[in-house]
Amino acid sequence: MKMSKILTFMRKNPALVGFIVLFIILSIFTESFFNISNIVNVLRQVSITAILGFGMTLVIISGGIDLSVGSIFAFSAVVMASIVKGGKVLLGIIVGLLIGAIMGLFNGVVISKGKIQPFIVTLATMAIGRSLTLAYTQGIPISIFPNNFRFIGRGDILGIPVPVIIMFGIFFLVLYLLKKTKLGLYIYAIGGNEEATKLSGVNVERYKIIVYTISGLFAAVSAMILTARLNSAQPTFGQGYELDAIATVVLGGASLSGGSGGVLGTLFGALLLGTINNGMNLMNISPFYQDLVKGVIILLAVLLERSD
Question: What does the pLDDT look like over 85-100, one tens digit per residue?
Answer without folding.
Answer: 988 999 999 999 999 9
